[in-house]
Design brief:
Elements lengths: L2 H4 L2 H18 L19 E7 L2 E6 L5 E3 L5 H9 L2 H11 L3 H19 L7 E5 L5 H9 L4 E5 L3 H9 L3 E3 L13 E7 L8 H11 E12 L4 H6 L13 E2 L2 H10 L2 E7 L5 H12 L5 H9 L2 H13 L5 E8 L1
Parallel strand pairs: 4-5, 4-7, 5-6, 7-8
Antiparallel strand pairs: 1-2, 2-3, 3-9, 8-11, 10-11
Bound molecules: zinc ion (ZN).
Amino acid sequence: MKESDIRKRDVLNRYLELVEADAREIFRDRSGFQQIACPACLANNAEPQFEKSGFQYVQCRQCNTLYLSPRPTYEHLMQIYTDSPSTRYWVEEFFMPMVEARREKIFRPRAEFITLQFPQVRTGAIADIGAGFGLFLEEVRKLWPEANLTAIEPSQDMAGICRKGGFRVIEEMLEDVDEATGKYELLTAFELFEHLHDPERFLNNVGRLLVKGGYVYLTTLNGLGFDIQLLWDRSKSVSPPHHINFFNPSSMQKLLERTGYQVIGISTPGELDWDIVEGAWRHEGKNPGRFFCTFSENGSAESKKELQAWIRKYNFSSHMRVVARKL
Ligand SMILES: [Zn+2]
C-alpha cells in the first residue's frame, strides 16, 4: 500500500492548514490549559520537545510517551470536533472522495482481523466507538451476519448515516454511555486513542461496557515509530490539537495493565512508514538525514519493501495495533 492510495497530499496539507487556523481561533485564550502527568505511567518527569502551532509537546523520561502538555480542558477540546471548518473539510474533501479506497485498504482488513483474532465473538455483541460512517461495521456484517453490531457515534450526521445503514446506534460520547444499554464482548476504537483528552478515563469506560473477559481492539499512533521518529515535529501525524497522545508498545502495555486489562498483543503492522518519509523528503523537502536521503536516491524498490517489512516485524512502525482483555 502507498500513502497516495488512501489520502491525497494536497488535500491533507489543505486540511492541516485549516486545522491550524481553527486551532488558533478556538484556542486563542490558553489560560485554562493544564499541565498533565504522563498519560501512560503517571510520572511527572517529562522533557520538553517542541512547540507546534503554539502547542507544547513533551516526552516522558520514564516511558517515552510523547504528549501534549499543557493541554486544553475536555470541553474546550471538543469545540474543534463539533462544528469547525476543518472538520467539515475532513468529511467532504478528505474522507468522502477516498471512501471506497479506504474501505478496501483499511476497513476490510480490520474486519478480517477480528474474524481471525476473535472467532468466539461471531454472534456476540460488538460496538465500534467513533464508528463514523459505519464502514467497519458494514465490513464486519458481511463476514459475520449474525453478530449484534452497535455504533457508538456522538456526531449527529454520522450517527444518522449508521442508523440508515441498519445498525443500532448510541448517539453519545463513550463517557456518557449507560451500562444499562448493554455490555459487549468486543469494543473497537480505530485511530481514536491519539485524540483523547484522558486515555485512562477512556479505558475505564471501555472496561465498564465490556463483559468480564471481553476484548478491546484499538489502533493508534506509535510515537517511537519510524516516520514519526525521523520527522518528529515535522511529522503530519503530530497535529495539534487533534493528535495529542503518542504511546508506544511498552507504554501502552503499562497503561493497560494498570487499568485492569491483560494485554493479548501489541504490534505495529503499518505499511506506510517508509513511503511517508520518502514522500516528505521528495515532495516537501523534509530532510530525514543523510543516510535516508541516500537510501531514497539509491535504494532499489525491493530494498525499500524489505525495510518496511523490517519496520513492521520489529514493532517500529508508527501504526500500532492493540488487543487486550478485560480482567
Ligand atoms: Zn511515562
